[in-house]
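pasting for ref
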Amino acid sequence: MSNSPSASTPHEKRTLIAWIAAHRGRIWSWMRIIIAAVLMIFVIELVSRDSDKLHDVNWNLIPIAWGLTLTSTVVKAVRWGLLVRQSRMDVSFRRLLGTYFVGAFFSTVLPTSVGGDAVRAVDMASSTGRVADSTSSVLIERGFGLLAVIGSGSLFGLFMDSGEVPLAFILVIHAMFIAGIVGIVVLRQGWFIDPLERLMVRVKLGRFVPKVRSMHTALSGHLGRASVLWQMLLLSILANALTMGATYLVLVAVTDPIPVAAFVPMIALTTTAELIPISIASLGVKESAYVFFLGLAGVGSAEAGMIALIMRVLTWGHALLGGIVFLGRSVRTTSKDSQTQTS
């Protein structure tokens, strides 16, 4: 009888591991919620601790900042439209813009900040019946936008005063930008596709080779026309300037301005941190990144936290518009289905 507790311990461990494996999705979802809550409480506590520093916020500048972010979204939809037209997919700009806002809505309610991109790809595929081209257009549009943000951070980082921000962070931005350029070249040339297909066949995944080939064809096709890439680059610079301008306007509304050369690289790092899928819709992660990176550029914790919270509210404004568009589409679809069944 004395051996029974020790004998049951391995069984209990196996049972616990099996339970965790069976519920890992739910556990991870709850972990994301907890992480988001903890980080948001941390940021809100920072703001409330020094709330006396925030009495002079110029709220008149906030609607202007929101207008700039809305304009940036329109520019991004135009950028996406370049790829859609290149693939000869018959989708109106109105539909593209609406889908972009719907994507913003789902990015807010889904567990990851890139969930809206999946929604955009699915919506485009359902409208055109072309899964590979739809997915490719979203991936490349998203990639160009992120590359423009990182590229601007890399460029402005060259003009920063020595020691203003730790050199390691600037080197990270430069490395990410170079990696992004290399990634586009590799995708465009397709050097990796044959070795990848051979590897897939070797590991018994040969049935997926046609889908990989189809996706690569779509990606390389979208990256094949230099004129379209240049237009996307210019639109990406414009969209990024509008978004950065909106964020800087919020900073000016909250506190004394900091040099643009220090501001842009820090926002580039903040944008990259948003992609880490450890919370719901990057909630808390984005705000903590604002506090950390703007703090490196000399912005106080309370002020950086307030900037982050205001930018979060502006994001929710986009999501609200997307929710309205999504609701309108759902109502129209339901109405059409009812009319079809009646007839």
